[in-house]
Design a protein that fits this description.
Largest sheet: 7 strands, mixed
Distance between the termini: 48 Å
Shape: elongated
Helix content: under 10%
Number of strands: 17
Order of helices and strands: EEEEEEEEEEEEEEEEE
Structural class: mainly beta
């Protein structure tokens, strides 16, 4: 605990053998931006509180829990870690499709779709997976080698969704139809956008 608190450290890269980050371990490290913690399973209270970290936070599907205040005051952190346990899945030929939220979902409004589950890639957001959702405000899908496909009507009628940042292969028919609060859409590496993918988004 408090191992590097208040230090001038700029980057953290922990080996896969490190499973837990203790309370306040990096609290108020004002120069800390780059964090690689792919073996970590648990992050304790205020571990990274008041660090200026941004999107250079790299973790894996091994992360299963973190304290509510682990990232307090991280004003440049776009989206806090999204846990794989928040979702339900079904197996695909090449990996997994996300089919919706599980009972473990905490209601966090900013969501980063996981790159992998159980070491296998997430390849799809299933049809109707989040249709009618009223919680998600910001959605991000990072580029991965399997090129995620967003299924038909996957987020249809998600009335609270304001920002989407997508690195995907394909967006299905009506995937974001009637997302009438949408203010910003950043779409990259698209091979196909089906009809009405963003239809009726005021």
């Amino acid at each position: 605990e408090e191992a590097f608190a208040g230090s001038s450290i700029q980057a953290v890269s922990l080996s896969d053998k490190t499973k837990r980050i203790g309370a306040r371990a990096f609290k108020e490290c004002k120069s800390l931006y780059n964090i690689y913690i792919c073996g970590v399973e648990e992050i304790a209270e205020e571990a990274f509180a008041y660090c200026p970290m941004n999107d250079n936070l790299v973790y894996s599907d091994k992360l299963t829990q973190y304290a509510d205040n682990a990232f307090d005051g991280c004003t440049e952190l776009d989206i806090k870690p999204t846990l794989t346990s928040w979702f339900t899945y079904e197996k695909t030929a090449d990996g997994y499709a996300i089919t919706g939220f599980s009972d473990a979902y905490t209601g966090e409004p900013n969501i980063l779709i996981p790159d992998s589950v159980n070491g296998m890639p997430v390849t799809d957001i299933a049809e109707n997976a989040f249709e009618g959702n009223a919680t998600i405000q910001k959605l991000k899908i990072r580029y991965n080698s399997y090129h995620v496909r967003v299924g038909n009507r996957a987020f249809d009628g998600s009335t609270s969704l304001k920002v989407v940042d997508l690195h995907v292969y394909e967006i299905g028919e009506g995937a974001f139809y009637d997302c009438n609060s949408l203010e910003q859409s950043n779409v990259f590496t698209i091979m196909n956008i089906d009809r009405e993918a963003f239809g009726d988004c005021d």
